[in-house]
Amino acid sequence: MLFCHANEINPNNQIGIVIGTLLSLIGLIWLISQGDPMIFFMQGINSGQLLMFIAALSYSLYGVLTKHWAIPLPNWQSLYIQISFAVILLLPNFLLAKTVEITAANINLILFAGIAASLLAPYLWIQGVFRLGANTTSIFMNLAPVFTAIIAVLFLNEKMHSYHLIGGGVVLLGVILAQQLRTPLTQLFNHLRCNTNKK
User: Fold this and answer.
1) What pLDDT shows up at residue 130?
2) What's the number of CA atoms in the CB half-sphere (13 Å) around residue 41?
């Protein structure tokens, strides 16, 4: 997730995206570390974090290439192709699983994963990338841990802590700034250069 904003960083980007990305990163670190960022240095990087690192890098690349190549396929056809490849990749694990029984206890999870997470979410993401661009769209990914914490408090009876409020607030501020500050970096650089020349 942290790499979602590393794509296409160039002087034509807006000030808000740069500042918003930095603020969101700070907020995410505070939220994930539960208010103790030093925990990352003490515990080191485990295999799960490395996999998430690779996943974030791959997803950011996907967002950039989706916008850059602009494959002439309707969104639903593009989504169908993605789902087809996902089925092929996941099929071996499915066949090797000890049990794949559908029960009353897991049917709701299956429906949510199959419809909301696998159909609606990717479709809306593709729409966002095409309409807003990869940079602007990707910064909203930083809200995922914030919504996760909110849902956990509301539905799983987890306690709300100060690091939830501080980290989530900083992330939200970063997202807002990314949307509101529309001045290109080139304009800022030119302004600073002019002031320097005058002095």
Assistant:
1) 77
2) 3
* CB distance 128 to 137 below 8 Å: yes
Query: pTM above 0.85?
Result: no
Which stretch of 3-17, 68-82, 94-108 has the lowest confidence by average pLDDT? 3-17
Report the sign of the C-alpha dihedral through residues 86, 89, 93, 95, in that order. Answer: positive
Report the largest interatomic distance among the alpha carbons of the chain, rounded to a whole angstrom. Answer: 75
Angle at 9 between CA 6 and CA 12, to 5 degrees: 155
Average pLDDT, the chain: 76
Domain that holds residue 139: 2-198
CA contacts within 13 A on the Cβ side of 145: 25
Which of 80, 133, 161 minimizes the C-alpha distance to 152?
161
Q: Looking at beta carbons, which pairs linking 142-147 to residues 24 or more positions away fall under 8 Å? A: 142/1, 142/4, 142/24, 142/25, 142/27, 142/28, 142/171, 142/174, 142/175, 143/171, 143/172, 143/175, 144/1, 145/28, 145/31, 145/32, 145/171, 146/31, 146/171, 146/172
Number of domains in the chain: 1
CA dihedral sign of residues 84, 90, 70, 63: positive
Contact 16, 180 (CB under 8 A): yes
